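Example record

One chain of 159 residues, shown exactly as stored in the release files.
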Amino acid sequence: MIKLIRNWFNNRIIKRSTITQAEWNQALASLPLLVAYTTDEKHTLKNLAILFLHRKIFEGAHGLVVSQEMTLIIALQACIPILKMDINAYDGWVSIIVYPVGFSPKREVMDEFGVQSGPRLTALTWVAYKVTIKNMPNDFMGNIIIFVFSPNSILRIRV
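Predicted structure tokens for this chain:
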């Protein structure tokens, strides 16, 4: 019964989406990795992205203004790993922080000899609380977004 109500609610959200087909077409066209996907897969991806956008909050860091185009591109790529799953795979967190290109946190690491070094990270995620995404050009963004939004991960760092 709960699944029936959840499906009804999700379908209602999808039908009431205010994103135009032209906006979806532009977002899909900007992602060359989606060329190999079938029409049905793209349709499922679009529906998952609508639900993703409904459930998640996008925040720009350091003055970055997050545009609708950015949210569509991020949502489409974020839903690729759950294409054959359910949007509930991303339950447990609600906020996505999008950083400007210059963001790269430093982390101090001490090896067994006591030497400290600081690898530079390009993407960092806390699935339980917030997801952090570095804003990159579309041709490179795909790898980061898919990496960051891997379901069932606790902490992933890409060096």
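Notes: Strands lie at 57-60, 95-99, 109-110, 116-117, 123-126, 130-134, 155-158.
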